[in-house]
Amino acid sequence: MFIKPKKxxxxxxxxxxxxxEQIVDTVEIANKEVLEIGPGSGNLTTFILxxxxxxxxxxxxxxxxxxxxxxxxxxxxxxxxxxxxxISEDKISNExxxxxxxxxxxxxxxxxxxxxxxxxxxxxxxxxxxMFQKEVxxxxxxxxxxxxxxxxxxxxxxKLNVKKIIxxxxxxxxxxxxxxxxxxxxxxxxxxxxxxxxxxLEMITRIFFSQRRKMLKKPFNQVFKNAKAIAKKFNIxxxxxxxxxxAEIYFKLVKEFENLRx
Length: 262
Prior knowledge:
About 35% of the residues lie in helices and about 20% in strands. It has helices spanning about 15-25, 45-50, 65-75, 110-120, 135-140, 150-160, 200-210, 215-225, 225-235, 245-260; strands at about 15, 35, 55-60, 80, 95-100, 125-135, 160-170, 175, 180-190. It contains ten helices and nine strands. It has two domains: about 5-190, 3-Layer(aba) Sandwich (Rossmann fold), CATH 3.40.50.150; about 200-260, rRNA adenine dimethylase, C-terminal domain (Helicase, Ruva Protein, domain 3, Orthogonal Bundle), CATH 1.10.8. The protein is an alpha/beta fold. Strands 4-3-2-5-6-9-7 form a seven-stranded mixed beta sheet, sandwiched between helices. Strand 3, helix 3 and strand 4 (about 80) form a beta-alpha-beta unit.
């Protein structure tokens, strides 16, 4: 059956069998509960089923595709016909989920940011195996002092270990996107820097990186009344640029900001 992908939902269906196999081989899922985001026509779902998971949940926003998936897999999967940005994933199961997602390109960073910000100390997932545009993936895995390093790098590496698995060419999809994709594996960190509110990290990194070519002096003055004293406390040269500070320094600055606000 031919399914016309919807551009408005950022649909690019993965059709390359070798890539589909590589994705499901990234992690062990036998007897585990799996969540798939945006299963589309169910190509990856078929490969997940072959690995004998305990249960598969899929989140599919497209009503038409949800019906096709129901028809194709009958009782083999649990379909959640809803928008992934509006769902509380921690309510899906009592078990920790292994998540697969060929994420819609137009909202991929929004999905990842939502998950990271909403995690408390209890991770609702065991592992995330997610696909992004290659340039987005490069921003996620980037280290300080590189041009790709920024808000997304700091946020992603706050509570998660991130590893790049493979790059995927446009011909592996239908319709073919104009860019390459990358598959990333995320696993929860046992210890991460404790902050009162993740939204403060989001806000402060936004202020700093909205003017990434400017010196640190300007964002420091925006965030702190006593900017010079704070910079001295953390031994920061205000003539540097936002990309020169390691993620750990940003976590400390957010903590300082939270402490000063009481």
